[in-house]
Design goal:
Strand order of the largest sheet: 3-2-1-4
Oligomer: single chain
Shape: elongated
Mean pLDDT: 89
Number of strands: 4
Distance between the termini: 74 Å
Radius of gyration: 24 Å
Number of helices: 13
Order of helices and strands: HHHHHHHEEEHEHHHHH
Length: 292
């Protein structure tokens, strides 16, 4: 048996190791398991102004699901809910969308609702622990209703979200944070109410994450989620205000002013609303320049 000389053995070993690493990296890339792959796919999806991937997948990604394996495990939980509703209700014995939605809502309230918590926006927690807030419960209801062919709307008012189903001239609203399921009259008549698109629902998840990171003084993390929010919903001024607060907390006044200039150039209709903020930032930046 012949043996390789030492330099040749090292060369062969290097080639084997390099090929193995390249193969592993390629396999990881193909399977989508590298860090940030799923979130990158979501952000690329919404950049054209709409969300094409299923709402349940987008909501899970925004909530922090970062591998295909975890994604599949949560999608199984959605399927299990649907399977229970199929087997335990009369949902498939009516063709009326409102009747179907009432059956689904009633089953969820009875069997998959362990309370409403203001900051429990995480769709994973709603599937795992049966807890949530108006946003995560509304998303779950929307996902399941769509499985049954129900055209459900997500209605946003400042600080709250509820659902609405319309059919044959009839309308029914669904409130997820009260046991009676009844939407308050003030919420129904709120002049600022609007129907949210799916990408705007995802923006709400990111906005919650941005606020929580800001409250925890994780300003760089909050900045990231503010930008995610604006990618999903570029016309929302709330993440703009929060983003500026993060920059100021990190004493990056020039970057705050630069961002606001860019935002206002793209949204001139907001000039009046941000005039005082702009003047304040401008003065702060001038003071910083004078100090240096």
């Amino acid at each position: 048996m012949k043996y390789f000389t030492l330099p040749v053995r090292y060369l062969v070993l290097f080639i084997i190791l390099f090929a193995g690493c390249s193969s592993a990296q390629h396999a990881e890339f193909d399977s989508g398991r590298y860090a940030g792959y799923l979130e990158m796919s979501l952000i690329q999806d919404v950049e054209d102004g709409r969300l094409d991937m299923p709402l349940e997948q987008a909501s899970l990604i925004a909530s922090g699901v970062d591998t295909e394996k975890r994604m599949q495990s949560y999608l199984v939980k959605v399927d299990q809910l649907i399977s229970h509703i199929d087997g335990e209700t009369e949902v498939n014995r009516t063709n009326d969308p409102i009747s179907k939605a009432l059956i689904i809502f009633g089953w969820l309230q009875k069997n998959a609702y362990d309370g409403a918590y203001r900051d429990c926006y995480d769709f994973k927690d709603t599937l795992n622990l049966k807890v949530g807030n108006c946003l995560s419960y509304a998303i779950r209801f929307t996902v399941i209703c769509r499985h049954y062919g129900i055209d459900v709307k997500n209605i946003f008012i400042p600080g709250h979200i509820y659902n609405r189903v319309e059919s044959n001239g009839q309308t029914h609203e669904f409130e997820h944070t009260h046991s009676d399921g009844i939407v308050k009259k003030g919420d129904k008549s709120n002049p600022h109410k609007k129907v949210l698109e799916d990408r705007e629902l995802i923006a709400e998840i990111y906005l919650y994450k941005a606020r929580n990171a800001n409250n925890d003084m994780k300003y760089q993390e909050s900045l990231k989620y503010c930008r995610r929010t604006l990618t999903c919903n570029p016309h929302d001024s709330r993440p703009v205000i929060l983003l500026l607060d993060n920059y100021l907390a990190m004493k990056r006044c020039d970057e705050a002013l630069q961002f606001l200039n860019g935002y206002l150039s793209q949204h001139p209709e907001e000039n009046k609303s941000f005039q005082k903020t702009y003047n304040l930032l401008n003065n702060l930046c001038k003071k910083e320049d004078n100090r240096t």
